[in-house]
Input
Amino acid sequence: MTPVELSRTVLHAVRRAVDEGELSVTVPERAVVTPPGPGGCGDYATGIALQLAGAAGQPPRRVAEILRARLAGEAFIGDVVVTGPGFLNFSLEHDATALLVEEILRRGRRYGHAEGAGGTVVRLRCPAEVRAVVVADALARVLRSQGDVVSVTCDGRPAPEWETVLGVDADPSGSRSRSAGPRSLPDLDITIHPAPAPTDPVPLGRDAGRWALLYPAAHDRPRIPGDHLVQREANPLFRVRYAHARTRALLRNAADLGFHPEPGPVSDAEALLAALGDHPRILTTTATHRGPDRLARHLVTVADATLPLLPAVLPLGDEKPSAAHRARLALAEAAGAVLAGGLSLLGIDAPDHL
Output
């Protein structure tokens, strides 16, 4: 069960409580589901009871208990605990791990992308400044992943190397952008104007140059040259690409040993499972808030949660591959798919060898 699916389950419980007369509230459009905060427990948590308490005219913990009674028996939810002023904390059954990994492996790099059309027609406009152009290019990729139809227009003529080196579709007229065509949905005009780059990022090359411009929040000035080309742990881009390359190497090594990934329960991987399950929400949030930096920081979180898993993926010495090894290998492959897919949306390569 992913956070998106858990959110739908929580909303269904709210709707049932309203229909049965225990709550008198308007059912919200979504329930925010995140990893538990301090004092929480389990795999995920939501504060929807605090959100509804005022309208319901009841204490948050009472609202939480009403919802807990309806959520405890849901499929793939092992336990529901109320903590603090009224947070609902969920522990998922082990089968949920396998289902999440299966879903990621089925979708591959497109995990978290919207299935089917139906998005908004979006027009992005940016000044002819290198960071604005790169941010607009990355945001267009993320918006398209969520089903939107996007065109990008640059006010002015971009430098040719922004296209040849940094890989952007820098067309001042927007004529090469995807055509929206006749649509019934309303158009959305967005101006992209982040803090400009202090120096030219082109000498960094495509991958490091784009990361340097996309990783900081829009109001922060990027560090150029920074340490974006250094292959060491202090470099977030290196950690993300290294984690991906390690997952690919493990798949090759496992094939040499004669075993393959098979989704199943994995112990001591809660942080990684939470980060992978949160990936669809991160893509939606990145599109909604027009911030590719959110996706970049999420990829660092995934990478940092992936690396501790990897030493236990392959059997050691004369040890035979077990179901646990196959499950860990499947989880590592899923993490690699999320890292590669996220980097692709940022316009950055995810090499199999590093």
About this structure: The longest strand covers residues 77-83. The chain is about 45% helix and 10% strand.
